[in-house]
Amino acid sequence: MVLPPFGSRNLVSGAVWMNLLATGPLPAALPGPPELPASCLQAVVVTAADRDDSAAGLQRWERSDPAALWKPAGRAWPVRLGRNGLAWGWGLHEVPADAATKREGDGKSPSGIFPLGPAFGSAPEGPPGLRFPWKQTTERDFFVDDPGSALYNQWVRLGPGVTGSWKSAERMRRDDLLYEFGMVVRHNAVAVRPGAGSAIFLHVWKSPESGTSGCTAMERADLVDLLLWLDPARDPLLVQAPMDDWSNLRLSLRSTSP
Q1: Is the residue at 178 inside a domain?
Q2: How far apart are CA 194 and CA 188, in angstroms?
Q3: What is the block-wise mean pLDDT of the chain (258 residues), using blocks of 10 residues?
Q4: CB atoms within 10 A of CB 154
Q5: Into how many domains does the chain fold?
Q6: Is residue 4 part of a domain?
Q7: Does 10 map to a domain?
Q8: Which of 11, 143, 176, 183 has the lowest CB atom count within 10 Å?
Q9: What CA–CA distance (Å, rounded) separates 91 from 137?
Q10: Which domain holds residue 229?
Q11: How far apart, in Å, are the Cα atoms of 142 and each of 26, 67, 163, 177, 229?
Q12: Contact 217/181 with Cβ under 8 angstroms?
């Protein structure tokens, strides 16, 4: 089966999308990275067929220098996005005028271009070969998702006996192993907008059929492969969008300024 050309309105269903991505590399009809900063030599590209779909595919891309062409790095694999699909987030890109944007609790993953890091997980150290900084999670680690808190969208580690002053926060040490390995997606991280979405990660999925609250989730082995491939010296970025919005992905002038 061949996917429709880029920009086609005759998009495949999420179930067919997942089956196709499980069989091999992304078809040539799918887009590669848009214009990215010259320092970026690795791109994690996540593409969904439709903005309301939680099924998507992930392809790694790399280039040897800023003037070189992007080339796919290895195979593609299926991922799950927010249970309600995607909405424009806040990162290194321009948000289109009048676009629907991500809100706290909307069950949507952010579309756009985002820096990554740190990597995190339950073990004292990351998997052998990891090049990103590693942060071990503990019972005292929280990612604040209370829009009314001054610590909104921040990772906070409480001291012994200290209680958080927020109304709600994501526990970073989980019993279900979804955060056994993970990577922080730096969405809404600069000039934080209260209520515009928080605690966005790459992490292990609950199942191939389960959407997330807004993160990008995948098979454990695929996530480990991704973590080991990423190199902070190559300034990797997450590029994430449905096919219909791909042509609207443009770097913000702020992201290219000295």
Answers
A1: yes
A2: 9
A3: 30 46 46 90 96 95 96 95 98 94 98 98 97 97 98 96 93 95 97 97 97 98 98 98 92 58
A4: 16
A5: 1
A6: no
A7: no
A8: 176
A9: 25
A10: 16-23+33-250
A11: 36, 41, 11, 16, 27
A12: no
